[in-house]
Amino acid sequence: MALVAHIDSGKTTLTESILLQSSYLSASGSVDTGSTTTDFLPAERERGITIQSASIPVKWKNWTFNLIDTPGHADFGMEVESASRVIDGAVVLIDSVEGVEAQTKGVWKQLDRYGVPTRMMFLNKQDRPGASFKSSLRSLLTNRLHPHPMVLTLPIASFDPQDYAHGEPGIQGLVDLVKWELWRWDEEGRSAYYPLPTDVRALEKLEFLPSNHPIIPHLAPARTQLLENLSMFSEDLMEVLLTLPSEPSSYLGIKSPDIIPHLRKSTLEDKILPVVCGSAIKHIGTSIAMDYVGELFASPLDVFHDSTKNAPLRMLAWKVSWDQKRGWMTYVRIYSGIQLLNCRREFRLMRRYHLGKLTRQSAILNATRNQKEKVSKLLLMYAAEPVEVDELPFGAVGVVLGLKFTRTGDTLVSSGAPPSGRSVMQDIIPPKAVISASVIPNSHSDLEPVQNALESLSRTDPSVRYDLQEGQILVHGLGALHLEIVEGRLRDEFQANFELGKRRVSYREALGPSYDPAHFEKPLITKDDKADIAGNSVIVALDVRPLQEDEKGNPLWDGNLVLNKAGVDISSPDSSSTANPELLIASGIATALSSSPHSSLPMSHLRIQIREWSTPSPLSLLTGASAIVLRNRIRKVGMGPLMEPYFLFKVSVNEDTLGKVVKDLTEHGAELQDLGDGMSDGVDEVGGYAEEGNYIPPNMLSPSSSNINLEDTSGSSKIKRFIHALAPLSQMLDYNSRLRALSGGHGQFDMVSAGFRVVTEPRKIEILREIGRA
């Protein structure tokens, strides 16, 4: 399972709370003091942000979770991407003041891309002034995260009814609507829970809740609606409810063991989205959330795996890191085993027969690269602390030492696996770079160490790319912060001696206007389809045209679409094979697309289909020939339109500086999307999901929500306003300092990629001058 969210939603704080509640820690650390378990890199502790994902096994009651804490900043999206590929479930956190934000939707799309089967929302920071349980829940619908969010817990802001009348912020307790219990936390974080009565009238005579508490009238209706909404997805539960008498107390007597199976089935089928709430920093709601993770989330048996009796070992490398003492550390998820009716019995049998298990000194095969590997040691990682183990069983997440060739996304199998068991699993898609900088070695003797360091770093972080352009080394990343971290890691981890040049946005070039028509059904081979290489005339016939509006490029191909002869998408340019001519041609296509002959920029938004080829000896000549043919075709059609990366910005400022900030944005080419003070990310949705059929809680559950976005009610100048704008990244590289100056240090912003857009002709000339091509 992973914790994912927008930046500053409390993922690392919730991780600390989980580790404390599970007795792994005796005292929880703090992001502010740099003492958390999973943020152990110096840069993470210095900046107070998560930069890399960290894995830690957690024992909770009868369950063992492989917990992964992930970054929230878009610059480190590769870490979320790789974690999303191997998890069975995700807890998505929301700041209850902000609601669904831009990167919330970004990580949700990543979970969708890899088909993560189970998810749960944790509405965090219920203790903050302005927190709104109702608005946060409604934001799930308006932003189309799920049509059926199902509230499992209600917050109790205070056990003193007067605090509700005064609009005091806080959270002191929770009501578990499924288990029909009330939880209370004291100021020292100790908790106690009380079963709730099954008679509505008895709810007004509770010893642990004042009779005039405003939440009491809402308890029975909330549980009733929970069961009625759930019964819409379970005929068995519907039949149970229909047999009950029609009185207010009838639904209160249903026990949680009679509800959980229906709740779990509906969660696994993605028919509902469980919603819990709390405050991670106060450890309120953590234990309830973890109980529901165990009861509702998919186990390794619920997701696709090899279910044959003697299944060979099969695993996916989802992360690679470098350690100066241990060398290359490959994080793997084990996907193999047998499937029987009883989960516990299956694990006992697997242990008895040693099925689907990785052991030390195992000989394995990298099916992606067709390379043999040898395991030296196996580790379980408790964040930064390794524990050596003898084996990794089915479903486990662990670390393998000794692998020389394996990279993120590679499939690893038993060395003796039959050909049918060597198929490659779904790859991990690295986000494409949007910013670059030159890397200048301090001396000629530093050149090779710098290149080796960049190669090693790109292996640990596939979203980092480097290349050589006109004798200059360029490193490409996902944002300015990403490049700062890359610079620090090159110096600190790899001891590289260099200077980082001026940052530059990574532009793209599209196909020129004079492209050739497609080949007929039987390609008519012309001189444009031939390349002379190593004394051989090699034929590679390609159809090349721009993508149509209704066609979508492959992120692994940088927004291009590359098809084989049958018209099937070639999933990755890294799919290597010495025997498959189409994959050899694809490798050459990738080389040609990486640098335009006109501008040296990467090419994007092209549709390329392989139509015909000759059979040279050796066959590997097809790679060089296809690169030459495609590069000549691109040169022949002339320079195409240029594209630059745009980002969605959400800027938070006080009312008195709103005008200056808006003026600055428009002067730097930004398009204003929205001005407001509510929970919005400024992006037009095609209509949110309907509230009908969902439980929408009353406003009174969050008494301070009426003060949302107010720092000080004494004057309008302190009212917080939000600006949503779409802006070119090239104009926003120094926005942090600009905003600080314009807002007197009170402004804040976050940003998320909005893709590439074609630029105007004057802007195209500016870009060509910038890159030295005009």
TrEMBL record:
Pfam families assigned to the protein according to its UniProt record, in alphabetical order: EFG_III, GTP_EFTU
PROSITE patterns: G_TR_1, G_TR_2
InterPro entries: EFG_II (IPR041095), EFG_III/V (IPR035647), G_TR_CS (IPR031157), P-loop_NTPase (IPR027417), Small_GTP-bd (IPR005225), T_Tr_GTP-bd_dom (IPR000795), Transl_B-barrel_sf (IPR009000)
Keyword Thylakoid in annotation: no
Record-linked SUPFAM superfamilies: EF-G C-terminal domain-like (SSF54980), P-loop containing nucleoside triphosphate hydrolases (SSF52540), Translation proteins (SSF50447)
Domain Tr-type G: residue ranges: 1-301
Keywords, comma-separated and alphabetical: Elongation factor, GTP-binding, Nucleotide-binding, Protein biosynthesis
GO function term, MF aspect, one: translation elongation factor activity
Record-given protein name: Translation elongation factor 2
